[in-house]
Amino acid sequence: MEIQLAPLLGLYLFIIGALALYRRKSVMPAVSQMLKNRPLMLVVALVELLAGLAVVINYPYFTMDWIGLISIIGWMLLAESLLYLSLPYKRVQKIIKKFNKPEWYLYSGILAVVAGAYLTAVSFGWM
After folding, report:
1. pLDDT confidence of residue 1
2. Domain that holds residue 56
3. How high is the mean pLDDT in each 10-residue block of the chain (127 residues)?
4. Domain count across the chain
5. Cα(68)–Cα(56) distance, integer angstroms
6. Angle at CA 33, nearest 5°, toward 112 and 20?
7. What is the distance in angstroms between the CA of the first residue and the CA of the last residue of the chain?
8. How far apart are CA 26 and CA 20, in angstroms?
9. What secondary structure does DSSP assign to 82-111, as a single string?
């Protein structure tokens, strides 16, 4: 299971990061519209909870290699989903609005591309 999650997360992060960088002006309004749809926010939080739990159960420990990176991603998914599920809806909206800025997409997109490239390279034996 270990090496199978690395290419999946690696390619996912690389693609999502590239899209965040390239299409951020069209993604930002979509996120704003998503904030107005409470049932959709609940579904997103529940899916994120499921994904976070799946990753954390398989990669519970932080290490200084690609496995640790996968663990960090899992814990971040878990923490974000728990925030969305436990905080009042208005507070969740405020948090997401705070991050729905062009500079956030730039920095997080770069980080996602780098992390995705690293996980992809490790999983395919290029590193």
Report:
1. 47
2. 2-123
3. 78 95 90 91 96 93 92 96 95 92 93 96 88
4. 1
5. 11
6. 20
7. 19
8. 9
9. HHHHHS-HHHHHHHHHHH-SHHHHHHHHHH
pLDDT at 17: 96
Note the pLDDT of residue 3. 52
Q: What is the pTM of this model?
A: 0.86
Helix/strand/coil for 6: helix
Encoding tokens for residue 79? 């923490």
Average confidence score pLDDT of the chain = 92
Alpha helices in the chain (DSSP H): 2-22, 24-35, 38-58, 66-86, 89-99, 102-123
- Encoded tokens for 11: 């390619």
Those residues with Cβ within 8 angstroms of residue 1's Cβ, 6 or more apart along the chain or in another chain? 58
Tell me how far apart the alpha carbons of residues 73 and 59 are, in angstroms, rounded to a whole number. 10
Going by C-alpha positions, the residue among 46, 113, 35 that lies closest to residue 78 is: 46
User: For 45, how many CA atoms within 13 A lie in the half-sphere containing its CB?
Assistant: 21
Asked if 20 contacts 110 with a C-beta cutoff of 8 angstroms, the reply is no
